[in-house]
Structures are given as C-alpha cells and as structure tokens.
Design a protein that fits this description.
Blueprint (H helix, E strand, L loop, with lengths): L2 E5 L3 H7 L10 E5 L6 E5 L12 H7 L4 E3 L3 H16 L5 E5 L2 E5 L5 H17 L5 E5 L2 H10 L3 E3 L3 H5 L11 H9 L5 H5 L3 H19 L17 E10 L2 H21 L3 E11 L4 E12 L2 H13 L7 E11 L11 E2 L3 H15 L6 E4 L8 E4 L4 E2 L12
Parallel strand pairs: 2-4, 7-8
Antiparallel strand pairs: 1-6, 1-7, 2-3, 5-6, 9-12, 10-11, 10-12, 13-16, 14-15
C-alpha cells in the first residue's frame, strides 16, 4: 500500500495571504499572543530578518513597514477546502489530517499516473496562492515526513534509508525527550531506531516507545476518512465593506478555483453560476449566469463575472458575497467525420457569455421562427455547435 500527503508549510499565513488582495507583495507576519508577549508564528518572504519566535516589537524594528496580523479562521477553512479538493482528485479515500495537511490512500492507483496527477495538483495549488508540497510513501507517517522535506514532490521507495538520516526533531519529541536523547548522543532517527524499542520503553515509558515507533515510520492507525463536497458554493463577509471592484474579483477568483477543483474531484462540471452580493443596507443583488456548456474552467467563469460587475452600480457598499455552482455531468460527445464544427469553441462560448452579461442571457441566441400567423415573431435558441447536414430533397417538389 502507498499513501500521498499534501502539505502546506506556514499554512495559516498562506491562507491569510490568499484571502486579502492588499497583502500581496508586502512583508507580513502572523503573530500569536497578546501585548508584549506576542510572538511571530510565521513570516512572509518579504519580511527580511523576521523569523518565527521573534517578539512582535522586535519584528517591527527589524522590518519597518511589516504588517502584523493574527490568524483568520475563515480564510483557513477556505484554504483547507481547496487542499481537500485537490486530494480527492487523487483518491476517493481522503483524510483531513491537520490544518494544511491531507492524506490520501492510493490503494489500487497506478504509480505513474498518480505522480503525474500530483505534479499537476501542485502547480494548480501554487497558482491559487497555496504553495504545497507532496510526497508518496508506504505509510501515512513516512509520506508526511517526506512531504515536509519535499521540493516540491518526493517519492519514498525505501523507508528505512529515507528515515535514518532525518533529524530527531522530525519525530516531534517533547523538549524533555529531546534533551535527554541529545545527552545520550542520539541526534537522528536512525540513531534512535538502532536501539531496541523495549529498552527505550523501559527508560522513557510509553511516550518513549511511541517516539521510537514514529522514528521507525510505523503508523498502524486507520485514516479518518471524510466525504467529498456535496454543495459547490463559497461565501465571504467583508469587514469593513468594500466599494471597489478589485477586492471582489480577487476573492471571486479564489472561490472559483476551489469550486472548480471540487467539481472535478467529484466528476461534475458547472452548468450555471449564481452570484449574490449582500449590500451594507441588508439588500441582496443576485445574478444567474447560464454557462454555454458545463465546464470547470475558472478563467471562463471570471470573464463573465468581471463583465457583469463592471456594469453594476450599487446603492451601498458590498458587505458580503456568495458564489454557487449548479453541478451537471460534463458533456461527452464524439464528432462526426464530416461534421463542420467551431474552430475555437472556447472563444465562441466565452464571447456569448460576455454578451449575455452585457445585454442579458435572454437576448443572446440563434433566432428561429415561431409557428404563428405573425411573420415577425421569433424565439432565441441555443446556437448549434456544428453545421447540421443538409436535409434530403423532398420526394415531391413544392408547388
């Protein structure tokens, strides 16, 4: 058996950065604690000279202009859902192991196909401002150790050879255990597993035996499996409310990326989108977007949403938004040998979606006459994706 682990280092900070447009490219530090006892938990790459464990006052003096923030639970929930959706594209058996960490059981999966899918998921997560690492190992624990050390993907074939040189801190010993084992001259996992487990248990108790098991990569636990998403929606509350287009589009892109990945993980595509804006005066503006065909392309969704929001004027500031997708099975069809189809179907349907956002979906389509006595009556139908074959000539010519 083999397992895959998706791991995001500094997960609370990256979850915060991907939820606020104003923090991109700025030095940001995530702090915990209150007052003078507040310490830096995570720091962005732009925060030069600021390391985890540094006092917040010292961080301000080392990096002028640094933004100090606390953890955002809503942003972490949204980022975790994105990570879970990526894991479900690898296997139907997924565990949400910890914030910023998911484990997938790869039983029955082809190794080459799984590795290729993992590389694609890592690229998608990085593009969604969630830089993840991944690893494949014979046990969930070994895969987790490898994911922490991956750059960005690592496959472990020989667990003992991989674990032996790792530092003892990889097995998460307590401070007392780390000091005691260091005094014994034990600094790596291989040094610890070279000793008998029974002797470690006699001297350090059950906690020591559990540490030995973790150092050996033994993980006999059963994964706490979760179910894939059943509803495909995302919402956000702005505090304070916003009155410009940029923060709306920024979060809509983040939500669209996650919803599209959840749809792909469950074998669905979006048939239509519903955007709801909650204004500061407690009124709501809702707009439904009929997609040309079911798809999971967030870029195409954003173009239609962008066109709509550019023409929208509200009487109050936006205090919240919600984006929902109606699932449908993706279209499956086989083109005929002599069919004449569209040269660029994506561009054609995107143009129709943009026109629908400008003038309304009910005003876009292919006109067809209606069976009535009024010669100017017509209806708009869905445009054909290919030129239909000519009708056979009638048996008797028309008079």
């Amino acid at each position: 058996m083999s397992y895959a682990v998706l791991f995001v280092p500094g997960f609370p900070l990256h979850a915060l950065l991907r939820s606020e447009a104003g923090l991109a490219g700025r030095p940001v530090a995530l702090v915990g604690g209150e007052g003078r006892h507040a310490l830096v938990l995570h720091a962005s790459r732009e925060a030069l000279g600021v390391d985890p464990g540094l006092a917040s006052a010292l961080a301000l003096s080392r990096c002028p202009g640094i933004v100090l923030r606390t953890r955002d639970p809503a942003a972490e929930v949204e980022a975790q859902r994105l990570l879970i959706a990526a894991a479900f594209t690898l296997s139907p058996r997924v565990e949400s192991t910890a914030p910023g960490c998911c484990t997938a059981d790869l039983q029955g999966a082809a190794p080459a196909a799984t590795e290729a899918a993992l590389r694609l998921r890592l690229l998608e997560l990085t593009a969604a401002s969630l830089p993840a690492r991944a690893a494949i190992g014979p046990s969930p624990l070994v895969a987790l150790y490898a994911a922490r050390d991956a750059a960005p993907l690592r496959v472990v074939d020989d667990a003992s050879a991989f674990l032996s040189p790792l530092p003892l801190s990889a097995a998460d010993p307590t401070p007392d255990q780390a000091r005691l084992l260091a005094s014994w001259g034990i600094h790596t996992l291989g040094d610890l597993t070279a000793l008998p487990k029974g002797g470690i248990g006699q001297r350090l108790g059950p906690e020591g035996a559990a540490l030995w098991d973790r150092a050996a990569g033994r993980d006999e636990r059963v994964l706490r499996l979760i179910e894939p998403a059943r509803t495909f929606a995302a919402g956000w509350d702005y505090e304070p409310p916003v009155e410009s287009l940029e923060p709306l589009l920024f979060l809509l892109r983040r939500h669209a990326e996650r919803i599209a990945l959840e749809l792909r993980a469950t074998g669905f595509a979006a048939e239509s989108l519903a955007l709801t804006l909650r204004l500061e005066d407690d009124t709501e503006l809702r707009r439904d977007f009929r997609l040309p065909e079911p798809n999971t392309d967030p870029d195409a969704w954003l173009r239609a949403l962008h066109t709509h929001l550019e023409t929208l004027r509200t009487a109050a500031r936006v205090a919240g938004l919600r984006l929902a997708a109606a699932p449908a099975r993706p279209p499956r069809k086989q083109d005929g040998l002599f069919d004449t189809g569209l040269r660029d179907p994506a561009a054609f349907w995107d143009t129709l979606a943009r026109l629908g956002a400008l003038v309304g979906d009910e005003r876009v389509g292919t006109p067809a006459p209606v069976d009535t006595y009024r010669p100017d009556t017509y209806t708009l139908g869905r445009p054909a994706e290919s030129v239909p074959p000519p009708e056979p000539p009638p048996l008797h010519p028309r008079r």
